[in-house]
Amino acid sequence: MSSIQNINIIPEPVSLEISTGKFILTEGTRIYSDHELVKLSEYLKNLLLPTTGFSLIVKETKEKKSNDISINLNLVDNKGQLGFEGYTIEISVKDICIIAPNQVGIFYGIQTLRQLLPPEVNKSSIDENREWQIPCLKLEDFPRFSWRGYMLDEARHFHGKEIVKKMLDMMALLKLNKFHWHLTDDQGWRIEIKKYPKLTEIGSKREETQVGGRFSKKRDEIPHSGYYSQKDIQEIIEHARDRFIKVIPEIDIPGHTRAILASYPDLSCKGYPFRVSTHWGFHKDVLCVGKEKVFEFIQNVLKEIIDLFPSNIVHIGGDEVLTRRWKECPYCQLRLEKEGLKNVKELQTYFTNRVIAFLNTYGQEIIIWNDSLNKNLKGKPICQYWFRGMKDVLEYLKKGGAVIMSDFRYTYLDHSYTFTPLKLAYNFEPIPKKLDERYHKQVLGLEALMWGEYIPNIKRLEWQTFPRLIAFAEIGWTPKFKKNFNFFQERLKFFLKKLDINGINYADLREVKGNIFKRPFKVFTLATEEKGGT
Ligand code: ACM
Ligand code: ZN
Fold first, then answer.
1. Looking at the predicted structure, is the pLDDT value of residue 5 above 70?
2. Are residues 217 and 168 in the same domain?
3. Which domain holds residue 19?
4. Could you tell me the pTM of the whole model?
5. Of 93, 153, 171, 413, which residue is the least packed, with the fewest Cβ within 10 Å?
6. Nearest CA owner, ligand 1 atom 3
7. 407 touches ligand 1 (CB under 6 Å)
8. Closest to 325 (Cα-Cα) out of 295, 350, 289
9. Of 102, 122, 141, which marks where a domain is finished?
10. How does pLDDT run across 423-457, given as a tens digit for each residue?
């Protein structure tokens, strides 16, 4: 396969037929749309304005004159296989027609149109001497998976609003639709909770940061802090909503909670003072499951989260919970006895069940890391798979559970390109081989995880993220039979031009190749600091 007439779309669409001729965008091109789509017409106009210099006239379809050269956005009843997010585009010499059953499909049609234009259309300044042409074609497109996610961990390093918005813009261009925001961890609490001001007064600040990897004794001696006010969060949710991206907050409990315990030590088993953690790894002090006040705290925090995030879905973490403190704690032991629980693993399930019950009363969907799966789990939270326990995940699917795939070998964006080269990432298949076809629909999709331990700045963040996130976008959208790594690499060269134009850093095609001889040794150094990108 080769790229045809400069058509380089990522993710590769479901079907594409090229015909002869081309549409030329000029100052006289009109944008017509249904009444409900006027905001999207304005969005398209504003995308085209900076580089073309054309301030296109936007009107409703009913005002269209037959001889106008125009871009048309229209809603239709879903007759075929387009589904919720699908769309079609037809381009003739005279018209561009983007049609979809829902606004989101129109939005994705616009993203494809952006990719059909020369990459220079993404510039922020005028490019006067260019002809803005698009080949005539017919295209039908819809996603393979409904869950196409990107996770950003800002607990380990706080980046701030503008960087998050920039990432959301890139997600939109790639038709990614879920932004999972890891806002709390041992090394920082990053979201204002009005009822518990110490979470940010104390929990959002750490004295210094471990450098040189997980087992290094070295610290940078530089304080690190930052958090989002609820107003900031609303601003980001709006930015995401305008790009048809759902924001899913993660409040990671009952482990990964040193920042909570530094703010409110009473919520631990031991009760003594803690510091917000300055090193990586997992920590033995976790929330006490014996104390009622812990549940009261969690419920109050989650209530503010539910009120703030309109997504109706909360990730409650549950990964890597060490149980040593629970074994020694009189409160936890009393709980174990009173509830007739067999062991401390069951205590975690007891904890999770209570949080699930609370969130269910508010009609929330819930996500847990697969570490929390247990046969006594009540309800059917969505399970996010990352490491070990695939057998439990397969069982969960057979029992009707839904799963998001984030296998650490493929989808961890913090891993080196030696451990997870671009080709390996691209060839990730979210549906487990051993899964019977009747359960395939319960695999909602995939999510790429940008863990933040070794990501102190935007340059590193972008370098680790791109181009791998571009590959994950294609896995999430494009039919499996159409995936082809060589063809992807050809299209990628054009996509990278957009990153150049927008000043986004990425690992170049030599850096992402990996080395099959070195890869096995990288397993032993996964927890060391990766270099590159700066
Ligand atoms: C994880 O990487 N602890 C989910
Ligand atoms: Zn306890």
1. no
2. yes
3. 15-141
4. 0.97
5. 93
6. 319
7. no
8. 289
9. 141
10. 999 999 999 999 999 999 999 999 999 999 999 99
